[in-house]
Amino acid sequence: MTKSITITVRYFAAHREITGCSDETLVLAPGTTVGALWEMLTERYPRLAGYSGRLLFAVNQEFAASDHTLRDGDEVAFIPPVSGGALQPFVVTPDPLDPAPLVALVQAPDMGAIVTFAGVARDNFGGRKTAFLEYEAYPGMAEAVLAQIAAEARARWQTGAIAVHHRIGRLEIGETAVLVVVAAPHRREAFAAAEWIMDRIKEVAPIWKKEHWADGDAEWVGDEKERKQKAPQRSTI
Predict the structure, then answer these.
(1) Quick one: 95 and 74 in the same domain?
(2) pLDDT the model gives residue 86
(3) Which alpha helices (H) appear in the chain, and where do they start and end?
C-alpha cells in the first residue's frame, strides 16, 4: 500500500508573491483532497487564507472540485481571481460551459449533496432531425431572472448556493446549452430544486431557442406549438 503521494503545486499572480515561489513539490498522505491541501497551504502561508472562497481549483490543468482526491504525480493549481473578476453564479454567455467551476462555486462543508443538470443540444426535436441550435437572450434581464428563480428555489427547498449558466449563439449537436448546479444538505432537495429551476427557466426566462432543421428549414421553438394550436382541426367523422 502506498504510504505517501508526491504532487506539484503551481502558484500564480498574488499567490506566487505570497509563497515566494512559482511551484513546489509536496509529499502528502494518500486520500488527501484538493480542499484539504488548500487548508494545509493556508496554515503554511497564512496570507493565502484571504483568498478562500474566491478561487478555483485545477488538477492536471482541468478544473476540479475541492473534494477531488489527489493522486501521485498530480499537478495542482489554485486559481486566484482573474482580470475579468470572480466567477458569477448567473451568467448568459456565448462561451462553452464547464460544470466544474460551478460545482466549486456552490459547494460548502455543510452541504451533503450537489446536483448538476446539463441540458445538451440533441439531434432531433418534435420528430424532426436537427442540424444545430441557436439561442438568443435579453442578457441583462435573463441573468436577473435566473437569479430570481434560484432565490425562489432556495426559499422553497432550503438549499445552499445555486448557479445557473446558459449559452447563447450557435450550438452544435452535443454541446451544453444550460447548466444548473444546486448544493443542498440532502439529495432529495437538491434534485427537486434543480428540476424546478429548469422548468421555470423554460417558462419565464427571456431566452429563446431556434431549431435549425437538417432539411434547411428553421423555426423558433414555441412558434410551431402555437401554430398547431391555432390550426383548424379536421373532423375524424
Answers:
(1) no
(2) 63
(3) 13-19, 34-44, 99-106, 139-157, 187-204, 223-230
Is residue 12 a part of any domain in this protein?
yes
Integer Cα distance of 121 and 151 in angstroms: 27
Helices 139-157, 187-204: crossing angle, 10 deg rounding: 150
- Do residues 94 and 192 both lie within one domain? yes
Same domain membership, residue 121 and residue 59: no
Domain ranges, residue 164: 90-226
**Do 8 and 25 form a contact (C-beta atoms < 8 A)?**
yes
What is the tally of structural domains in the chain?
A: 2
**What's the burial of 120, exposed, middle or buried (CB within 10 Å: 0-12/13-18/19+)?**
exposed
Question: What are 79-106's pLDDT values in tens digits?
Answer: 766 545 567 899 999 988 888 889 888 9
DSSP 175-189: -EEEEEEEEESSHHH
What residue type is assigned to position 3 of the chain?
A: K
**CA 232/CA 229 separation, integer angstroms:** 8
User: Is there a single domain that holds both residue 208 and residue 118?
Assistant: yes
Residue spans of the chain under pLDDT 50: 83, 224-237
Residue 141: strand, helix, or coil: helix
**Tens digits of residue pLDDT in 137-179:** 998 899 999 999 999 999 999 999 999 999 999 999 999 999 9
Can you name the residues that pair with 75 across neighbouring β-strands? Answer: 8
- Do the beta carbons of residue 195 and residue 119 sit within 8 Å? no
Let me know if residue 18 belongs to a domain. Answer: yes
